[in-house]
Design goal:
The complex is a heterodimer of chains A (528) and B (121). With 528 residues, chain A is an alpha+beta fold. Chain A has 14 helices and 20 strands. By secondary structure, chain B is an all-alpha fold. Classes of the chains: A alpha+beta (528), B mainly alpha (121).
Chain lengths: 528, 121
C-alpha cells in the first residue's frame, strides 16, 4: 500500500519530524520504510485493500516516558497526528492501524515493564506494553497467589484493554473498573498522575482510586486526551475453588423469569463472574432435524424438540469463585431462585480447587475464566478465517430486551436480503454490571464486495439499535463516527463537551484525531 | 555410604558421565535455549499441541494429516517461508511488528523451526 503523508503536513516537515523522532528514541525505533510500516496495517480491516483502508505514514516506538514526552512535543510542532497503541492487538476493533491515514503510530510495546505486583494488597502496576501473558508469566514465576483477569485473547495489553473498556470473566471482569491510578502524558508533554499518584510520595496509588478533587480517569478511556504510560490494576486473590453450574429452562417465554433471577443473583453479588445466556438451539453440534424445525416450524415445535433432547430452550452458565463451602452454598441458593420456573433443569459443570498443576490446566479447553490467558478464541471463525469484527450493543438485562434485540437484528439481516440466521450471534454476556452485551460476529475477508456488504449491514444495525435505545459499548475504528453520531441527546451535548475538553487539552489536535468520534477543532467536519 | 567401582570400569563410567553431561548441554546451548524460549512465547499459544490452539486447528484442516499440525513438529519449513508468514500473516494470524518480534527474535524462531529440517526431495 502507498504510504500517505500526515494530513496537511509537507514532505519536508515530515522528514524533519522523523529525524527528530530518531534523535529522541534511536534510529532503529522509527519505522518509515514501506516494509516496516506495512506491519502496522489492520490485519482485520473491513476496508482491506480498498482506498479507504487506514494506512499510517510511519511508526515510532519509545521505551521511556521521557521519550513519549519528546515525541508529543515534536508532533505538536509539526501538527502530526499520533495514533497510540499498546500491544497493537485490538484485533476486531482496528488492530495497530490508525483512525486516519497518514498518522504516525506511537507504538508503546517496548514499554513492557511490570513495575510492581503486590501480593498482600492484590494489585499490579504495569506499562502499556505488558500483555496478559506477560503478567501471568511474571506471577507464575514468582509463585504469587494472584489471578489476572484476561479477556478472550491473552496477547493484548492490560492498559489498552482497560482503556478500551474491555471485559473478562472473573470477579474482576470489568477491566476499566478494576484499574486504580494512571500516569498520563498530555499533548503538551506534561506528565500527570491520577488519584493518590498526585501525591509526590504516594504510598496508596494502587489502593485508593479517587485521590482528592475531581476524578478524571474516565476521560482518558476510549479517548484521545492523553497517552497513558502507567496503570494500576486490582488483582483477584487466588480463590480456593471454582464451580460452574448450568440452568436450562424449557419454554421460549421462560426467558423473562430466567433473566429476572439471573439479574438478582448478579446484582446481589451471589454470582460474580461473567455469565452467558444462550438460545440453546443456536449452539451445539450440527443437527439437520433441528435446522429444519428452526426454519419452518413453530416455537412450540422447537420447545418440544429441545425437551426430547433433554435440553432447555434457554441455557445459562453460572460461574462461582471463592471458598469451596461458599461456592457450594451459592449454587444451592441460585438453584432455589430458578426453581420457581416450571421444568427447570440444573447440571453441575466444571469444578476446580486451586492451585492447578500445569498438566491439569492443559486439559481445560478454555482456561480464560480461571484467569489463565489463551488465544483459543481465534478459532471462532473456522480454520480458514481471515479475521473478524464485532457489533456489540448494550441492552437491558431483561428477558424482553433479549427477545426484542434478537428479533430486531435478525429483521435487519433479512431486510438486507440475507437468509434467516445468516447473522451469526454469540451468547448474550454479562461482562459489565446491570446490563447485557449482545455480540454479533462479522467475518472479515480479503474480498472487497463481501466487506462492503458487511459494512452496510453493520451501519444499518447501528442505526436500528439506536432507534430502539441501544448503543454500542466499543467499535472498530471504521465505525467510530457512525456510533458517536447516534449518541445524540440534546444536539450531541456529550460530544460537544468532549470536543470542548479536546480543544482545551490538545489545541493542535495531534492525539488520535477522530478516535471514538471526537475530532479536534482543525479537523472537525463543521470546520472543513 | 560410598560405592567402590571396579578399576577397569572407571574409564567407561567417566566417558558415560562426560557424554551425559555434554549432550544436554549441547542441546541446550544459550542460542538454542533462547530460540526455544522465543518460539514458546510467541508461537506456542497458537501453534502448540492441544485442541484449543487456533494455528494447530487450521494446520490440521489445511494439511489433513499430510503434515504435522503442531508447527514445532514440522521438518519441511524454510527460513524464507517462516519470515514471510511472521511478517505478512496467514489466515487469522496477523503480521507481527518489529517491536513484538524483532529481526533477531525472528531469526531465533527460524533457527528453532528449522532445527530438524530435512532437505526437500
Amino acid at each position: 500500500m502507498a504510504r500517505p503523508l500526515p494530513p496537511g503536513v509537507s514532505q519536508r516537515d515530515f522528514s524533519q519530524a522523523l529525524r527528530q523522532f530518531e534523535a529522541a528514541v534511536g534510529k532503529e525505533w522509527v519505522f518509515s520504510s514501506d516494509e516496516d510500516v506495512d506491519l502496522y496495517r489492520d490485519a482485520y480491516s473491513p476496508f482491506w485493500n480498498e482506498p479507504d483502508e487506514r494506512i499510517p505514514s510511519a511508526a515510532v516506538a519509545p521505551d521511556l516516558v521521557e521519550q513519549v514526552q519528546q515525541i508529543v512535543r515534536i508532533a505538536g510542532k509539526y501538527r502530526i497526528p499520533l495514533w497510540t497503541i499498546s500491544t497493537g492487538k485490538n484485533l476486531g476493533y482496528g488492530g495497530s492501524a490508525p483512525n486516519i491515514s497518514g498518522s504516525v503510530v506511537l507504538d508503546l510495546k517496548r514499554m513492557n515493564r511490570v513495575l510492581e505486583v503486590n501480593e498482600k494488597n492484590h494489585y499490579a502496576l504495569v506499562e502499556p506494553g505488558v500483555s496478559y501473558f506477560d503478567l501471568y508469566r511474571h506471577i507464575q514465576e514468582k509463585r504469587l497467589k494472584l489471578w489476572i483477569d484476561p479477556p478472550d485473547p491473552g496477547w493484548g495489553s492490560l492498559v489498552g484493554n482497560a482503556l478500551e473498556r474491555g471485559g473478562g470473566y472473573t470477579p474482576m471482569r470489568d477491566h476499566f473498573d478494576a484499574h486504580c491510578g494512571m500516569e498520563i502524558v498530555l499533548a503538551s508533554g506534561d506528565v500527570v498522575r491520577t488519584g493518590m499518584g498526585a501525591l509526590g510520595n504516594a504510598r496508596t496509588w494502587q489502593q485508593y482510586k479517587y485521590g482528592f478533587g475531581p476524578y478524571v480517569d474516565g476521560i482518558f478511556s476510549q479517548s484521545n486526551l492523553g497517552i497513558v504510560t502507567k496503570m494500576g490494576f486490582w488483582l483477584y486473590p487466588e480463590p480456593e475453588a471454582y464451580f460452574s453450574g448450568t440452568v436450562m429452562v424449557p419454554r421460549h417465554d421462560d426467558i423473562h423469569a430466567l433473566v429476572d433471577a439471573l439479574a438478582l443473583l448478579l446484582n446481589s453479588g451471589v454470582v460474580q463472574g461473567t455469565t452467558s445466556v444462550l438460545n440453546t438451539a443456536s449452539f451445539g453440534p450440527p443437527d439437520p432435524e433441528l435446522a429444519r424445525i428452526r426454519v419452518g416450524s413453530s416455537t412450540s415445535d422447537l420447545e418440544r424438540y429441545m425437551a426430547q433432547k433433554g435440553l432447555g430452550y434457554w441455557t445459562v452458565d453460572l460461574p462461582f469463585y471463592g471458598p469451596a463451602k461458599v461456592v457450594a452454598a451459592q449454587w444451592e441458593h441460585a438453584k432455589e431462585k430458578f426453581s420457581t420456573i416450571p421444568g427447570v433443569q440444573f447440571r453441575d459443570g466444571a469444578s476446580y480447587r486451586f492451585p492447578l498443576s500445569q498438566a491439569e490446566l492443559e486439559k481445560i479447553p478454555n482456561p480464560v475464566p480461571l484467569g489463565v490467558p489463551s488465544l483459543a478464541t481465534f478459532a471462532i471463525g473456522g480454520p480458514f478465517s481471515q479475521g473478524h469484527m464485532w457489533f456489540s450493543p448494550i441492552i437491558p438485562m431483561t428477558g424482553e430486551a433479549v427477545i426484542e434485540a434478537t428479533r430486531v437484528f435478525e429483521q435487519v439481516n433479512t431486510d438486507l436480503g440475507n437468509p434467516a440466521g445468516a447473522l451469526p450471534g454469540l451468547p448474550i454476556w454479562s461482562f459489565f454490571a446491570r446490563a447485557f452485551v449482545i455480540i454479533y460476529f462479522f467475518p472479515i475477508e480479503h474480498d472487497v464486495e463481501k466487506n462492503r456488504r458487511n459494512r452496510e449491514i453493520f451501519r444499518r444495525l447501528v442505526t436500528v439499535a439506536a432507534d430502539h435505545g441501544w448503543g454500542e459499548y466499543r467499535t472498530h475504528t471504521a465505525f467510530m463516527d457512525d456510533i458517536a453520531s447516534v449518541y445524540s441527546y440534546n444536539n450531541r451535548a456529550l460530544w460537544r463537551l468532549h470536543e470542548t475538553i479536546k480543544d482545551a487539552l490538545d489545541p493542535s489536535g495531534i492525539l488520535a484525531p477522530g478516535k471514538n468520534g471526537v475530532w479536534p477543532r482543525r479537523l472537525r467536519r463543521s470546520n472543513a | 555410604m560410598s560405592v567402590a567401582f571396579p578399576r577397569r570400569l572407571k574409564p567407561a563410567l567417566y566417558a558415560l558421565f562426560v557424554l551425559l553431561w555434554t549432550l544436554p548441554a549441547a542441546a541446550q546451548d544459550p542460542a538454542s535455549r533462547r530460540a526455544a524460549d522465543v518460539y514458546d512465547k510467541w508461537c506456542t499459544p497458537c501453534h502448540g499441541a492441544g485442541d484449543n490452539k487456533p494455528g494447530t486447528i487450521s494446520a490440521a484442516a489445511l494439511y489433513k494429516g499430510s503434515k504435522p499440525a503442531v508447527l514445532a513438529e514440522r521438518t519441511d519449513l524454510t527460513p524464507a517461508g517462516i519470515r514471510s508468514v511472521v511478517r505478512t500473516g496467514m489466515y487469522i494470524m496477523p503480521r507481527f511488528r518489529k517491536t513484538e518480534v524483532s529481526d533477531s527474535e525472528l531469526e531465533a524462531i527460524v533457527a528453532f523451526l528449522t532445527r530438524t529440517s530435512q532437505p526437500a526431495k
